[in-house]
Amino acid sequence: xxxxxxxxxxxxxxxxxxxxxxxxxxxxxxxxxxxxxxxxxxxxxxxxxxxxxxxxxxxxxxxxxxxxxxxxxxxxxxxxxxxxxxxxxxxxxxxxxxxxxxxxxxxxxxxxxxxxxxxxxxxxxxxxxxxxxxxxxxxxxxxxxxxxxxxxxxxxxxxxxxxxxxxxxxxxxxxxxxxxxxxxxxxxxxxxxxxxxxxxxxxxxxxxxxxxxxxxxxxxxxxxxxxxxxxxxxxxxxxxxxxxxxxxxxxxxx
Length: 254
Prior knowledge:
The protein is an alpha/beta fold. It is 30% helix and 24% strand. It is built from 8 helices and 10 strands. Helix 3 packs across helix 4 (111-124), helix 3 (96-105) packs parallel to helix 5 (140-152) and helix 4 (111-124) packs across helix 5. The longest helix is centred in the C-terminal third of the chain and has 16 residues, at 170-185. The chain starts with a strand and ends in a 19-residue tail after the last helix.
């Protein structure tokens, strides 16, 4: 789904933002991209969204070979992605409903489709009672949920969350990542850029660290499972209590 093959990016001012980056992210993964300011995280996202092109190497996203992508094809690439921004980027004189609906209208969706889809997505992110509110009337966490709803409404295969917890209270950060994790459980690929290492440790996802333009680590945070004594193990029998787990595909349809 997302592949970087020996990617280098050097800007005109001589800054080498990425150096020989090779990464493969499969459909349905949740990946944290971590690193300090200036490490190359933003350039990584810009290359994915075709805001920049690599100086060398190949970037492939959803079967689009970005180095060969024509200008008129870029909107079709971006429609496969939903982006959640650190600073929300909501339109303050539009209601919550209209902020989310706007993302559908610019792609040519019918009014019937908008009326069906937007309330469903607002319910998904827990904002069904805020549809008539305006962004300044909401908390930071609620505004970020509007941003997430807007990113989801066109049913993208990839969600890109660029420091989504940077402008909200720490106690709400877990809530936002938990919501992203639930969306991922239902089949959507999620990439979240963050510098909050403590938050990353609370979730058991793949973590790619970029430092000075290089991938220095690619690992999964393992879940620590409690161990049972032999007596407890003999005493606990859950056979037949729970049905087999099943991961449904999720197309966000009501």
